[in-house]
Amino acid sequence: MLLAFALALILAACNAGRDETVIFSCVAEADATPGSARRVDFRYEDRFLFVRNDAGGADNVCSQTGTRLCEISLTGDSLTLRQEIDTPYCGWRQMARTTLDIDRRTGVFQFMQEGCDPGTDLRLTGLCEMSRPE
Questions:
Q1: Fewer CB within 10 Å, N- or C-terminus of the chain?
Q2: In terms of Cα–Cα distance, which of 85, 92, 80, 95 is closest to 120?
Q3: How many C-alpha atoms does 56 have within 13 Å on its Cβ side?
Q4: Taking the model in full, what pTM does it have?
């Protein structure tokens, strides 16, 4: 009985955060690329990541057409996204990568998205506030 209880505690610790719903409201620093949204909300729910920016929309980031890889991880310290998407119509790249790292302790975020041409790569940094829906 004691062994079963200990095993249950270990499994609960391993699964901590997986079913957690967290909203990150982020604002890019002033050096954001002209025309790009400066404010973006990320909602982590049931192991999925949804994004909404100034322009609207609430899309599951892993449901984009051509997605090859989409890894999302939420821990007590950070939220991370690693994504690769096929880009068959790009001249320079056959695949584009996106990375997102949010530090849950400081709120600092870093976002990088490759464009078709290396000169169109997007790099943003800024701060996020974390909240939980009621």
A1: C
A2: 92
A3: 0
A4: 0.77
Could you give the angle at the alpha carbon of 103 between the alpha carbons of 98 and 107, nearest 5°? 110
Beta bridge partners of 98: 83, 113
Give the β-pairing of 39-45 and 22-28. Answer: antiparallel
Note down pLDDT in tens along the chain; length 134 residues.
333 333 233 333 334 445 689 999 999 887 655 556 678 889 999 889 998 876 666 689 899 889 999 999 999 999 999 999 998 788 778 888 999 999 999 999 999 988 887 788 888 899 999 999 87
Please state, in angstroms and rounded to a whole number, the distance separating the CA atoms of residues 82 and 71.
5
CA distance 5 to 27: 43
Give whole-number Cα distances, 102 to 7, 91, 117, in Å.
Answer: 31, 31, 26
Distance, in Å, from the CA atom of 18 to the CA atom of 85, rounded to the nearest integer, reads: 24
Cβ–Cβ under 8 Å, residues 47 and 72: yes
Query: How many C-beta atoms lie closer than 10 Å to residue 8's C-beta?
Result: 10
20 in Cβ contact with 126 (< 8 Å): no
Find where tokens 């990150």 sit: 24
